[in-house]
Design a protein that fits this description.
Length: 368
Amino acid sequence: MNKTVPFFDYPRLFSDDKKLLLEVFEDVGKRGAFIMQKDLLQFETNLARYTNSNFAVGVGNATDGLELSWLAVGLKPGDEVIISSHTMLATASAIITAGGTPVPVDIGSDNLIDPDAVLAAVTERTVGISPTQLNGRTCNMEKIMSIANKKGLQVVEDAAQALGSTFKGKHAGTFGRAGSISFFPAKVLGGLGDGGAVITQDENLFHKIYQLHDHGRDTDGEVKSWGRNSRLDNLQAAFLDRKLQDYSKVIARRRAIAQIYEKNLRGIEQLNLPPGPSTGDHFDVYQNYELTAENRDELREHLKKNGIGTLIQWGGKGVHQWEVLGFKTELPKVEEFFERCLMLPMNMFISDDDVLYVCETIANFYAK
Ligand SMILES: Cc1ncc(COP(=O)(O)O)c(C=O)c1O
């Protein structure tokens, strides 16, 4: 084995952009502009503009963004919020820490939350839905919003993985009351540490979230309520703002990688691929390239032996399978999915040759 394709090469986040990042660091450092300075404001403004949102608030991370959104929406103890079981535990934990109860449901054929399962899970205690815009793909939000509107439910989108993804031209995170985006280093827009932002169209909600994230202070600096500290560092915001300028190139590259996978793997009958980069209703940004595969564990081992890194998302379990957290339901589609799912390398550091090598190695495995 002489070629390696790591799943994600963290040091390259710094080394590939070193010149730019050091310039930003020096500029921010010289000004001593570390907390809530103009770089953060500028990033929030640019992020809101990019997503066609009225408001954006930088927060400590996307999990906090979800929690603050639910608190601002007014979640009360006993309130139920329906989520997909195929999501990070953060979607659920944010509801718990905001005082509510997450109710995981099954996935549909697209591996996103199943709108029929959502409808079936609505009880008199249900107050909301928190759809996850997973792997850089926005759910069919027409269906989700129509259920929410009919049943009078609040929607807070987990858009942690989906900045730039759209459904029918509308950005992930802008369908419901609020959407939370993550800038975790491996995200499509990744910082050099933790970071997140909430986007919303609703001015009242914006002020509530703003107060919650900065010790109860509103945009005028006056204390209006109890709050806490969950701010996006000014330095991270300055990095992210520079990276946002080239974001369309990043998305185009990820879609080009997805196209190579699509072209070379689509014919392998033992695989079930995610949708290719179409230009239909869904515009996907490919945070991850997650497929399902026959003999997944053997395939993974074969790829490892050939120097290729892969990942099984969320430690290989749906939310409802974490019995230690008190879940007891059974959701057959998610459970089957986690027996077979695998994520292939998908990031800015891999070349076309790397992707072709991954495809060839997979084809060889099934040709045996
Ligand atoms: C779907 C989803 N939700 C929430 C989060 C939490 O984001 P953060 O790490 O910024 O809190 C992540 C991050 O991995 C995620 O993928």
